[in-house]
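User: Can you predict the 3D structure of MarR family transcriptional regulator? Sequence below.
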Amino acid sequence: MENFAAPGDFVDAARQGWAKARPELDVSSIEVMGRITRIGALVTQRVEHDLAPEDITRAEFDLLCTLARSGRPLRASEVTAATMLSGASTTKNADRLARRGLIERLPSERDGRVVLLQLTADGHALVDRTFPNFLARDQELLSGLTAREQAALAELLRKVAMNLEVRH
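Assistant: Sure. Here are the predicted structure tokens for MarR family transcriptional regulator:
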């Protein structure tokens, strides 16, 4: 069993374990990718926990935030592209949010077959009261970094993300 009490984080322990189990493999990439994955999973858990009192999932919140920042009603396909959910998930989440009165469906003026999604006043209110808490949490998580370190990290992660998005 790996010793997670040693100095370092989970990824350091995992890397040490791989060094013993498969010393011939170069596992240096997990220094970055393992941490990105682990941080993402931990943040997702925290987000789900923080959204539980609102009775809303992370995917539903992402849909609401996508609409909130768009400044206009969006087609479901636009929401799907922005949230990286499947079309079926977008539909399921939109149905639940519409039943709760957080979004509404509008007919497109250009094409009667197209339905647009738009936040309701209640949807705006939920985002307005909840989103600042997420920003505060993010700032807390980054508080150990200087502004310059945060900017450098953001730029490096942008490069990784763009490399992945080009291949996606």
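Residues 1-5 have pLDDT under 50 and may be disordered. The two ends are 36 Å apart (CA to CA).
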